[in-house]
Amino acid sequence: MTTVSVHGATKSFGRTRALDSVDLDADPGVTGLLGPNGAGKTTLLRMIATVLVPDQGTVSLLGRDPARPADRTGIRRRLGYLPQDAGFHRGFTVFEFVDYVAILKEMTDRRTRHDEVRRVIALTGLESVSAKRIRALSGGMRRRVGLAQALLGDPDLLVLDEPTVGLDPEQRLRFREMISQAGEGRTVVLSSHQTEDITALCGRIAVIHQGRARFVGTPAELTEQAAGRVWTDTQRSPDALTAWRTGDGVYRNVGDPPAGVELIPPTLEDAYLLLMSEPELEVTR
Ligand SMILES: Nc1ncnc2c1ncn2[C@@H]1O[C@H](COP(=O)(O)OP(=O)(O)OP(=O)(O)O)[C@@H](O)[C@H]1O
Fold first, then answer.
1. Which of 3, 9, 12, 29 could form a disulfide with 187 if both were Cys (CB 3.0 to 4.6 A apart)?
2. What is the ipTM of this complex?
3. Is residue 252 a contact partner of residue 246, using CB atoms and an 8 Å limit?
4. Which CDD domains does the entry link to (predicted)?
5. Are 237 and 265 in contact (CB under 8 A)?
6. For residues 270 and 106, what is the distance between their CA atoms, to the nearest angstrom?
7. Residue 86: its pLDDT value, please?
8. Structural domains of the chain, ranges and CATH numbers in brackets
């Protein structure tokens, strides 16, 4: 059984078509959504978190249909969600807030609930600030609180909207570690603008652009699409899509190379850029 199965999902807000016939499957491991601002990533994640239903198309989560109220409750019991704008109650302490979410998640027995709250606080490295008020935390620490509440009850499906946004490099690495651990044996679907995070974490990626899934496959498969299209030269090539002078003084160009230049291995970012520049190309593997 595929944990997440989205087929032909279309969603409009007024005249804006946020998603246009998107297909996406996700299984245990980490699946990443990559795309520019306004591409439709949050809309797709909200569907996978049972917050939104598509206007057209179908969504199946953990073998159930989130459009049916009885199924939806069952899915939510096995789902953890970190929304883009997690609405924290800033007057709560970290412990109180996570405990409050645990109560909403129907963990009624106080002792086992508190054990679970302490477990997720430890998992996300928040023990030392457990008694601090959320308003006194840095943005990165607040992101951890968001992850902690999503991990409550050891969910089978974890939906994380830009989990690494606003984190410093050290915290980002910590987060990567926590997310990759979370992806062992469970299904994690996340969005990110950080191609490095996507490359490091995701076994599978979907590039979303203007409401469409423009590429679905592995990071290596996406990167491979830019093979032969990145080169170095002593000057900026006029035909390059993008070019910059690197620290060692040569120009790194991306686009259609002229004859005789030195080709270099592409990165996922190069392939992403090339895909964005060719609006008609769609690749699904
Ligand atoms: N509730 C809403 N009401 C009206 N328009 C919306 C709503 N939610 C999303 N949209 C629009 O749908 C489109 C897709 O938005 P979405 O938030 O899914 O993009 P995104 O890829 O998550 O962007 P970002 O990277 O900036 O978070 C945008 O044009 C956005 O303005």
1. 3
2. 0.95
3. yes
4. ABC_drug_resistance_like
5. no
6. 46
7. 72
8. 1-78+155-218 (3.40.50.300), 87-152 (no CATH), 223-284 (no CATH)
